[in-house]
Amino acid sequence: MAKSITELGVREAEFLARMASEKKSGFLVQDAVSFWGSREMAWKKLRLLEKKGWIDRIERGKYIVIPLEAGEERSWSEDAYLIANLLIQPAVISYWTAARHWNWTEQIPNVVYIQTTSRKSKMSNTIFGVRYEIVRVSQKKFFGFTQEWRQGKRVLITDREKTLIDCADKPNRAGSIEELIKAVMEGSQEISWNKLNTYIQRFPSGAVKKRLGYLIEKLVSPLPQEGENILKEWRTTMTKGMNPLLPAANKKGYFLRRWNLFINTDV
């Protein structure tokens, strides 16, 4: 965005200072109504401040304050993780975006994946040129986070072990099979095997254990003894049904009984 800076009135400056001081990614129309005393006045001031280049609309009813660092031309791009926090709550950075966060891929994802348990009518949005995809999961799949601070505000990201599990659960959100392979190869060097095992026993999907077990066994060498023991346990406790390695992919391939997987893509 690029807007010319203009002077602020005393009350406008007070409003911006109050909105910016909140420990959250942005503010809502309701916050403006509370400050200005009426919905009519709030909308009037919001339109004026947006025109002046002091705020910008993220989506209907949600705004961010453009900081002084944006300079006279008001050119600013907010941290994508903070935008994600504003779009929905709870919000956890996940899938391919989390894999990039852990430096398991050199590619920069063209999408920010947000995991949540909440409902939202609009599950995808493009803001400041960045595409955001909201993925709603069950409460049973919603765990395994770590927190970081961005510009003094808290954001949640799936930890290394949960990132691997999520990417194996929804390979289409891991970037590609190549990106999933990278995540397994890089992530296996950094994870806690005990935590991964605890998580996968808790995760309500038998397919994830098979996919992740197969990929780890095939790609990670040498595999530490702890990892060997865990994969052996997974093979003895996996579900009997046959699952595809890559959902909604080729119907051609072969069955691998060792992992009860239909191998329908090259690894």
Model description:
It contains ten helices and twelve strands. The protein has two domains: 10-70, Arc Repressor Mutant, subunit A; 80-263, no CATH class. Strands 6-7-5-4-9-8 form a six-stranded mixed β-sheet. The chain has a three-stranded antiparallel β-sheet with strand order 1-3-2. The longest helix has 14 residues, at 39-52. It has helices spanning 10-21, 29-36, 39-52, 80-87, 95-101, 160-169, 177-187, 193-202, 206-219, 225-237, and strands at residues 27-28, 55-59, 62-65, 92-93, 111-116, 124-127, 130-136, 145-150, 153-158, 243-244, 254-256, 261-263.
Task: Summarize this structure as a short list of keywords or feature phrases.
2 domains, 267 residues, alpha/beta, six-stranded mixed β-sheet, 10 helices, Arc Repressor Mutant, subunit A, three-stranded antiparallel β-sheet, single chain
Give the SSE map.
Layout: H1 10-21, E1 27-28, H2 29-36, H3 39-52, E2 55-59, E3 62-65, H4 80-87, E4 92-93, H5 95-101, E5 111-116, E6 124-127, E7 130-136, E8 145-150, E9 153-158, H6 160-169, H7 177-187, H8 193-202, H9 206-219, H10 225-237, E10 243-244, E11 254-256, E12 261-263
Parallel strand pairs: 4-9, 5-7, 10-12
Antiparallel strand pairs: 1-3, 2-3, 4-5, 6-7, 8-9, 11-12
Helix pairs in contact: 2-3, 5-6, 6-7, 6-9, 9-10
